[in-house]
Amino acid sequence: MSSTRSRAHIAMIGVSAVSHVLPSLEVIRELVARGHRVTYANGPTVAGRIEATGAELVPCGSVLPVADNNWPDDPIAAMSLFFDDAVQALPQLRAFYDEDPADLYLYDIGAYAARALAESQNRPLMQLSPTFVGWESYGKDVAAQIWKLPGADAYRAQFGRWLTECGAATTDLDVFCSRPANTLALIPRAMQPHGDDVDTDTVTFVGSCAGRRDGEQAWTRPEDAERVLLVSLGSAYTDRPEFYRQCLAAYGDLPGWHVVLQVGRHTDRRELGAIPSNVEVHSWVPQSAILEQADAFVTHAGMGGSSEGLYAGVPMIAVPQGADQFMNADRLVELGVARRIDTGDATADALRTALIELVDDPAVALRSARLRAEARAEGGTMRAADLIEELLA
């Protein structure tokens, strides 16, 4: 460690969804490498990934539906799940951190209990956002519409009572759920809606925090592969056998192409039929490692996948499945590096045509290269770790 740094206890408090954990793992690994004691409170489904960084796991159970990905479509119902998770998590966090408080609390956007805990202990905190952040007019543009939905009043009242009872310093719900004074957005600024309307005094975009992920980084590009295509719908929307069959029909035996197809743990490979010789099928793949060697990417346009695609500089076919993915897909199209194909329109012909048009368009290649350079210039893992240490200082 540099003589200018002192060893600190840094706590990261997250939620059990893999898509919320992966974006900041390399930041945690870097903080450990710099000599800090890092504790990480989260559930058993992501324990192995956390422990691989060298952080000390603080077991914290979760009631989020991460096992079966049975997320509700109703926004208030989805928000209530994260609130219920915070209510049950806070006593678990107190059992550890009241006896061993951190010098700084880092927390995921969905980990409400983390902010309540840090405020009750009067400790500094920083949010690590794996997705886009609220812009200055967000309350008027988006939040105001959500609060008009059925069930919103009851949700607000319940959340407000909890804040009063749990010792949080911030008891105004709108303030509590807004950005704290310090936020690291772990996405390229290019993916941020209304980017010019974001308060950069409180938010810093550091881009995708890529790096080595122990146990899942190795992938070797076949020597005879002229071009490589990665197909992945991420971690939450993977039970899509018909979509995978269309991909096999579109890209199987496509001259010069080697295809890596990730199907998740819910898809039975027997449902896919015969696998062409140029396709390898896996339940999980080292996405960032493959993208560094890929020529194109079929993605669900989750923020993690979109950010890694821009970081690697590969053109994308966006097939959004839910949540913010439709907005992300449209943003990638707006940036000029993607085609959007909705699931119902994702026929073999449409998928094949989109791929050929993308990779043969020199303007797409130029835009992809420019955005790749911009994403890498944001600093990623090292800049995020530097900013965290500055807050400690």
Can you characterise this structure?
- The protein is α/β, with parallel strands linked by helices and 393 residues long.
- It contains 15 helices and 13 strands.
- The protein is globular, with a radius of gyration of 21 Å.
Biggest sheet strand line-up? 3-2-1-4-5-6-7
Q: State the helix count.
A: 15
Beta percentage is 5-15%
Query: Unreliable runs, pLDDT <50, ≥5 residues?
Result: none
- Summarize model confidence as the mean pLDDT: 90
Q: Radius of gyration from the CA trace?
A: 21 Å
Q: Looking at the structure, what is the overall shape? A: globular
Helix content: 25-40%
Question: How many β-strand stretches?
Answer: 13
Tell me the major beta sheet.
7 strands, parallel
Order of helices and strands: EHHEHEHEHEHHHEEEHEEHEHEHEHHH
Q: Which structural class is indicated by helix and strand composition?
A: alpha/beta
The CA-CA distance between the termini, in Å, is 15 Å
Summarize the entry for a quick read.
With 393 residues, the protein is α/β, with parallel strands linked by helices. Helix content is 40%, strand content 15%.
